[in-house]
């Protein structure tokens, strides 16, 4: 088991390396893509910052606190999309029949898929880190948090968030084995939920809160952990609960994936 | 060794009939339809055999190939590759299997060929020294040296096919499945690929199953032929056996000098003594008949027609093998793609 995992990890590294080598054939496209992604994320946050500076707080959440939510989201998403790149684009493989080729290899399909067209989200990562630094330092200056606790925990929260978003992405992608076209479903389960958790959950009506904490538990990416780290409204158990949420989502995703792949229908020829 | 026992695969299609109801109704209440792509197909291909797999488009060739290679799960039935079921133990079965899809490359599109070999070698956990030795062997066989450092996207189709073949053979599989390996190649590239495949089969003892629409592939390579139409296996045996079933179908076109002569000959053909002809057609002064050259020779038929007058022109066309296979199994209408 351990040897198997080690083998998979080194295989993963190798595949990533070659995937990189491929995308570096188109350097201009690579860097432009990274820059644009960062720019978009920045503009989105700038918009939020403008709103915040007008109203001061969102439901009692200050600018620094909101920046914390936003930066954790960006970093989690960057982790998810860097390490699992083409899982989000399974539809493309289903429509073209390119999944066939992946199924011929003596490797888990998911592993190969995760290493196709890898892009490192430098821009978003930098932006996220910058925002996190701003948020944590100004919160520490107000004695609201202690850096030596908040920093390592925030790293763990980002990793956990990456896993959770990956789990939701995986479960959504797996439905493609039944539905083939899933871009609209992804709009809902990935894009819309990611947008929703840029803001504190408390601004939403009850039913939406319910969805975002149960069926699509993205609230555990940033809002729930922040209740403990930043707001002190919950105990450390909240972090354990967030980790549990990731595990459940990941388990469901893996289950759907396994089931779906046995139903793969391929294309005409 | 490839064993297929009672393989069936049905797909659920969502397409409603075009003429029944509006597009909106089809969207709201999709009628699903079960299509049986492959029905109860069984065969065993022994180690070292070179087998051809033919049939019209939509007959179930690709579906069968994909079931054999573990890509599609059969609705019922079982596959064994050297004893291993590729649906239960896909990753294990994949190690002894090489697959080439002529229409689609499995190489890393933007990287040079040698990089693809490096990744593939690692995927099949080959030692580096073994991989280098193997690439050398394949280079001798397939002459890859000239384009080893070229990105795959810049290769010609013939080169790419050679590269893909080498990629499929890199991990020394005991079974090789080829889906249209000569598609789109020019005559000389086809010749190349064929002689390569022959030496792979003879020198390495690799079991090969090949699908094709080019009967020359079958004639020059395969000792055994499987014919599939409408999802059912119709023939499994030697090429000669298939040929004798088909006969030697040919179409003869004879043009008379005058309309009267043609009409007289036509009347004769309609009457008795003309059973040996299949399809008959009269187009002005030209009579078109179909027959088997095994039963009557071309000259013999011409002499019979010439009793009605001198012929202005006569020509014969041997029916394409695949077309003949069609006619042999009349329930096999070419399916629409």
TrEMBL record, chain B:
Keywords: ATP-binding, Nucleotide-binding, Transport. Residues 22-255 form the ABC transporter domain. One of its GO terms (molecular function) is ATP hydrolysis activity. SMART domains: AAA. SUPFAM superfamilies: P-loop containing nucleoside triphosphate hydrolases (SSF52540). Transmembrane segments: none annotated. It holds the Pfam family ABC_tran. The keyword Transport applies. This is ABC transporter ATP-binding protein.
């Amino acid at each position: 088991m351990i040897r198997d995992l080690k083998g998979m990890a080194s295989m993963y590294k190798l595949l990533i390396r070659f995937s990189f080598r491929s995308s570096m054939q188109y350097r201009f496209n690579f860097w432009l893509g990274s820059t644009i992604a960062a720019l978009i994320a920045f503009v989105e946050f700038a918009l939020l910052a403008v709103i915040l500076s007008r109203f001061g707080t969102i439901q009692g959440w200050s600018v620094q606190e909101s920046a914390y939510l936003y930066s954790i989201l960006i970093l989690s998403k960057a982790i998810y999309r860097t390490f699992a790149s083409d899982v989000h684009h399974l539809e493309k493989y289903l429509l073209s029949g390119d999944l066939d080729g992946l199924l011929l290899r003596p490797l888990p399909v998911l592993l190969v898929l995760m290493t196709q067209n890898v892009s490192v989200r430098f821009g978003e990562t930098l932006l996220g880190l910058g925002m996190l630094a701003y948020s944590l330092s100004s919160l520490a200056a107000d004695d609201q948090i202690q850096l030596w606790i908040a920093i390592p925990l925030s790293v763990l929260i980002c990793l956990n968030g990456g896993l959770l978003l990956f789990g939701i992405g995986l479960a959504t992608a797996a439905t493609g084995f039944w539905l083939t076209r899933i871009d609209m479903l992804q709009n809902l389960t990935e894009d819309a939920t990611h947008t929703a958790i840029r803001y504190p959950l408390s601004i939403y009506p009850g039913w939406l809160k319910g969805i975002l904490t149960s069926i699509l538990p993205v609230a555990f990416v940033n809002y729930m952990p922040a209740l403990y780290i930043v707001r002190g409204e919950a105990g450390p158990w909240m972090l354990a609960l967030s980790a549990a949420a990731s595990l459940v989502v990941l388990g469901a995703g893996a289950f759907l994936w396994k089931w779906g792949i046995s139903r793969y229908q391929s294309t005409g020829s | 060794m490839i064993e297929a026992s009672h393989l069936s695969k049905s797909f659920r299609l969502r397409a409603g009939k075009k003429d029944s109801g509006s597009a909106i109704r089809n969207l709201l209440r999709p009628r699903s339809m079960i299509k049986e792509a492959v029905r109860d197909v069984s065969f065993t291909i022994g180690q070292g055999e070179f087998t051809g797999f033919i049939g019209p488009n939509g007959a179930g060739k690709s579906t069968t190939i994909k079931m054999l290679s573990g890509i599609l799960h059969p609705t019922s039935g079982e596959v064994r590759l050297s004893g291993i079921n590729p649906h239960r133990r896909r990753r294990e079965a994949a190690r002894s299997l090489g697959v080439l899809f002529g229409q689609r490359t499995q190489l890393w599109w933007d990287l040079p060929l040698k990089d693809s070999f490096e990744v593939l070698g690692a995927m099949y956990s080959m030692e580096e020294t073994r991989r280098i030795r193997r690439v050398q062997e394949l280079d001798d066989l397939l002459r890859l040296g000239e384009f080893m450092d070229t990105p795959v996207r810049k290769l010609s189709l013939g080169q790419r096919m050679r590269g893909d073949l080498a990629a499929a053979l890199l991990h020394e599989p005991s079974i090789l499945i080829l889906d249209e390996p000569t598609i789109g190649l020019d005559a000389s590239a086809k010749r190349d690929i064929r002689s390569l495949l022959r030496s792979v089969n003879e020198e390495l003892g690799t079991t090969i199953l090949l699908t094709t629409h080019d009967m020359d592939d079958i004639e020059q390579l395969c000792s055994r032929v499987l014919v599939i139409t409408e999802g059912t296996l119709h023939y499994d045996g030697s090429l000669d056996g298939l040929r004798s079933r088909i006969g030697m179908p040919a179409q003869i076109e004879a043009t008379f000098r005058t309309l009267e002569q043609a009409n007289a000959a036509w009347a004769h053909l309609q009457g008795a003594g003309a059973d040996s002809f299949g399809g008959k057609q009269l187009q002005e002064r030209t009579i078109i008949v179909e027959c088997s050259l095994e039963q009557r020779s071309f000259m013999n038929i011409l002499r019979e027609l010439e009793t009605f007058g001198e012929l202005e022109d006569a020509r014969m066309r041997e029916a394409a093998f695949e077309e003949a296979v069609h006619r042999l199994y009349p329930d096999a209408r070419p399916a629409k793609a």
